[in-house]
Every structure is written in C-alpha cells, then in structure tokens.
Amino acid sequence: MRRSLLLISLIVAFCLCYTQSKAQTISAGAATAVAATTYGTASAASSFTISGTNLSAGVLVTPPTGFEVSADNVTFNSTAIIGGAGTFANKLVYIRLSALANAGTYNGNVVLSSAGAATVNVAMPNSTITPAPLTIAAIDVTKPYGTVLKDFTGSGVFTITSGSLKNGDIIDAVTITYGAGADARATVGTYTGSIVPTNAGNSTGLFALNYTVTYVPAKIIITQALLTIQVNTISKTYGDNLTGGPGFTSFTPVGLVNFETIGSITIAYSAGNTPAAAAGNYSKAIAGSAATGGTFVASNYIITYLKGDLTVKPAMLTVTADDKNKIFGAANPALTFTYKGFVNNETELQLTSLPTITTTALTTSIPGNYPITVSGASATNYIFVYVPGTLTISPAPLDPLIVLTFPNSFTPNGDGINDNWQLTALTPYPNCTVNIYNRYGSAIFTSIGYGIPWDGKYKGANVPDGTYYYIINAHHNNVRVASGSVTVIR
C-alpha cells in the first residue's frame, strides 16, 4: 500500500512539473493604420499577425470603438476568434473601420485574450472617417400673385441630388428661407435662387457630424392670379341711347389681391342700347374688356370678363285731363286729354289701348268743381301717369225773371217745429218740380208739385245732417229756375 501511494505522488509531481514547463502565451505583431474612409462605407482592411503557445482555447480579438475585425477578410464583426487550443503561429487578424461608425478619428487598443493566457494589447494608430458628401436642393415653388411665402423648418421641401443617406439615416427637417418673390406684392415672374435651404438635420443630433452638406437654392415662380370681372346689370329708359367704350365703372371684380383697385373697363353692347330697343331685359348684352386704372397691374392677372344684363325700362307717358267749364243745366262738354312723354317721334298709334276719360258731373249737377279722370291706357314701351282735370259748373246767369227764394235750413228732429222744408213760395205753382241732391249729385228727393214737403228722409230713413243741393223749376215763363243749398240740422 505504501508503495502505491508513493508511486502516485511521484506521477502527480511529474505532471505538475511538466505542465509548469508549458506556459500559455499570446504574441502579436504591430498594427498599422487602416485606410481612411467616408461615413457609411467600411474602410479597406489592414492586418497584423498573432501567435499562440500552449493555449487552452483560441484568441478572442476585441477591437476598439469604430473598428471591426475578421479572421478571413470576408466576414467582419465586432469580435473574432483566431486559432484554437494548442500552439499556432503567425495567423492574420484583419481590421477595418466600420461602415456604421460616425465620422471622426479612431484609435485605441486591440485586445487579445484567451483563458489562462495574459492579455495582449495591440495599439491601433489614428484612423479617420470623414463625413459623407450630400447635396440637398430646395424644390422650386410656384405661387399665384398675391400670396405670401413664410420661412419655416420642415420636410418635403427638398430633394437629395448628390450623395445618399447612410445607415438608415433620415432628414427630419430643413430650414427654408425665402428671398425675393416671397412677398404678396412681388410681381409675376421667376425669382432664381430665392429659396435657400440650410440646417438639414435629424433627431439623432449626429447628422451634421456625419455629412458634409452642399445646399442648392431653388426659384420662386409667380404666376398670374385669377381675376373675374362681372359687368353689373344696368338699366336705361326706352328712347335713351347708350354708347360703349372705355370708362365704364359699373362692375364687380372678384379676385383682386393686396387691396388693389380697378378704375374702369371698356364695354360694348350687343343689344338693347339703341333708342328704339323695346322695354325688357337683354341678357348678357354688355361685354367688358381692357380693365385699366386704379392700383392694379393687368399683367399680374388672368382676367375673365362675365357679361352683364341690360334692362330697358318703359318710358313715362303722362296723360293729363284737360280742364273744362259749363253753365249749370247745360250738357257736359266733350272731355279731352293731352299726352306728354312720347319718344322716338311716336304717337298714340303705338298704344295698345287708348285712355278713357270720365267725370262725375251730370247735366243736372249743381254748380261746383267735379273731377275729370283718365285711365285705362296700355303700351309695351310706356308706363302711364294720369293727371286728373276739373269740370267747373257755373251758376246760370241772372235774368229779369222772378226769382223765388227758399229757406236755407230746417230741423227735422220731430219736435213739431220746422220739421219739414216749407216752400210757401211754390204755392202759386202747382206744376213745379223740386229735385234735391246729395253732395255726390245723387237725387234723394223728387217731386212734381210740392204738396208734401220734404221731411229730411230718403227711402224712409233720415239723411245725415249736412248740406244738400236743389234745383227748383216753377215751370212758369216768368219765373227763373232756382238752385242752391239747404242744410239739414237735427
């Protein structure tokens, strides 16, 4: 038993001694700088050699920030395993700047490590990633005259015309500054270089670091604004003459900008403007053109003229009843009237119906003034104004015949005193006629002889208090016909 234990101890001691004589080591050659590159593009790779002695595993190669490594110069990653367990010599490590690294200068140590072996650092010289070139061009803007462009920061107002965005980068916004042509009063035309882009960027904040941006201005193109000029409806009277030409001011513009104004336009008539044009509406008979004056400039607008209507109103024709006179008891004279207002040398032959003329006076109407009225005329081109006249009835002239007199009032109130119109002067004339009229000339009492005096009634009803008129004829050669008034008082 003791011999066995001694043998085992000797074997273990031998093994330990052997192992201690096989130390694990990593060796490496010097690294050189990799070729410079631009952001978004991996650089060409450089290389250095490493060796391993008595290693229990391959060497883990960890590059500094910005670099990536490969064992075969094909597949690059953030780390690489070189060699394996045991001893190997002069294996190449390939190293390059990563396409994902931001622009800048990169250096630091490549760390070589393996379990049980001391770590080895390989210094990387300065290696450079320059910003990627990028050209951003503003987009041309077309706007109508009278609109305003304001500076702003946003997207959708530029294009990339040279270079490209890398690594999925985006441009969140570009600042756009507008120059000549942005104002509402800038006239129609092309303003080259008036849109200036600057300050392209994104939310990562590294855009300016990774790109060298060239900005290309764009132009503002100002087109004509749309302007509609509606010629307003105008009217004239039948018989008037209208002439076209410049200086017309009855119109409505729609689309003027900058508070501009138009002084006048030129118009031409297609119908309705001559003296002989019949009364009525002439649709779209007034055409406009050649707007001028005011503060607007015609070259800044595309102008559409909308025609206006022309309305011809009937002329006013006055028909005046002529005043007439007659003596009480005489027949009415012929009634006449006078026209005023015919145009175009026209006469009553142009009327479709002639006026009618009437009066309320009768042959028996008492002295006074009676209206003469005119009405009923019609014509296409005229409207009528009627002016009444007056028929004046004068009392019959006095003569040397007997003049009878009668009371000028009575009081039919039923008190037994003066209840009837007593005409004692008619007693000698049994064949007399008595006619009494109201103020409208209507007979309310008629009597042959005056056997029953008038009691102030008409058809059994009391007449209103007031003045009534009479004509009394004694039917005697020596007695003049009497006329006058009697007042009923209750």
Task: Explain how this protein is built.
The protein is mainly beta and 490 residues long. The protein has five domains: 18-130, Immunoglobulins (Immunoglobulin-like), CATH 2.60.40; 132-223; 226-313; 316-394, Immunoglobulin-like (Sandwich); 409-488, Immunoglobulin-like, CATH 2.60.40. 5% of the residues lie in helices and 48% in strands. The chain has two helices and 39 strands. It has a five-stranded mixed β-sheet, with no helix packed on it. β29 and β30 form a beta hairpin. The radius of gyration is 63 Å and the shape is rod-shaped. The model is unreliable at 1-21 (pLDDT under 50).
Jot down its keywords.
490 residues; mainly beta; Immunoglobulin-like; 5 domains; five-stranded mixed beta sheet; 5% helix
Sum this structure up briefly.
The chain has 490 residues and is mostly beta strands. It is built from two helices and 39 strands. It folds into five domains: 113 residues, Immunoglobulins (Immunoglobulin-like); 92 residues; 88 residues; 79 residues, Immunoglobulin-like (Sandwich); 80 residues, Immunoglobulin-like (Sandwich), CATH 2.60.40.
